[in-house]
Amino acid sequence: MLTNWFTAPPAAPKSPADEARSDSSEEDAQLVDSEQGNVLYHIISHLRPGADLSRVVLPTFILEPRSMLERITNFMSHPEMLLPIPEIDDPVERFVAVVKFYLSGWHIRPTGVKKPLNPILGEIFTCYWDLLDNKRAYYISEQTSHHPPKSSYFYMAPDYNIRVDGTLKPRSKFLGNSAASMMEGVAFLTLLNRGKDPTKGERYLLTQPNMYARGILFGKMKYELGDQSIVRCPELDLVAEIDFKVKGWVSGVYNAIGGSIKVESTGEVLYELSGLWSDKMVITNVATGKEEMFFDARKSKPTPPTVRPIEDQEERESQRLWQKVVEAVHDRDHEAATDEKTLIEDRQREEAAVRAADGVEWSPRLFRRVRGGPGGSEEGEEDLEWIINTHINYEAGPAAIAEQIMAIHPIVTGQKPDPTNSIPPHTPSTSNHEKQEGSNGQAAASSASSQEVGAEDLRVMSV
Question: Where is this region: Disordered (predicted)?
Answer without folding.
Answer: 1-31, 413-463
